[in-house]
């Protein structure tokens, strides 16, 4: 019995060894397959990486081509290329969709006609664009002319308003020195002036011309030497049309428009002139400065060539 059991055990041991050998072979083949799969995956990843790099390079090339297309010559070339591509596409569509008609009319007639139509459309489009550019240019020119015309009219209107032109009233001038009174009643006006002058002389003290001229506090000569821009007031606009400058001395009576508040010097100390009181006002007359009694129009003090 013991001897018969030994061969059976040996057979079982041999079968177990065979199974273990088969299992180890399967494991090795599975490991080899896994290694191959991992290598293939790495290769696939490398291919995808290279494809992404190619796409990036293509995008960069397209961007560069787009940037270059902004140049006028390149844009024109691209337009021509697109027009030619359109012609070729229509030729192909014509060839594919109208074979019978092409056979009846000839193989070369239809594509030529399509190309000619496309060329005519391109020419008409270019003509319309040129016409629109010309129209826009003409509109801009017309707008600029209209704006300049409005500006000139406004300037002339302002100039007329500055001169205080009154077409309904007539003013006379005597030797360019004294303007006539607006109502023409000179005798009555002189009487009124004398009466008002007597009243104002009683009410206000007389202006002393020598008192301030000898005071160094009002040394406008030196002050003007170092402040020349302050004494440059620009153009003087006369209240009357065609009125010219005439040298006016102390004691002269001005017309009221010459010493209206638009000619007053509101801050005399700015030009180192003394402060005024009562009815007196410093008034600009062309480049001269005058002290005028605004109630009567009498010039009580004057400095010639005061402004530049």
UniProtKB/TrEMBL annotation:
InterPro entries: RcnB. Residues 1-18, 31-43 have a biased composition (Low complexity). The lineage of its organism: Bacteria, Pseudomonadati, Pseudomonadota, Alphaproteobacteria, Sphingomonadales. It comes from the Bacteria. It comes from Pontixanthobacter luteolus. This is Nickel/cobalt transporter regulator. Residues 19-30, 44-63, 87-103, 114-190 have a biased composition (Basic and acidic residues). Residues 1-190 are annotated as: Disordered.
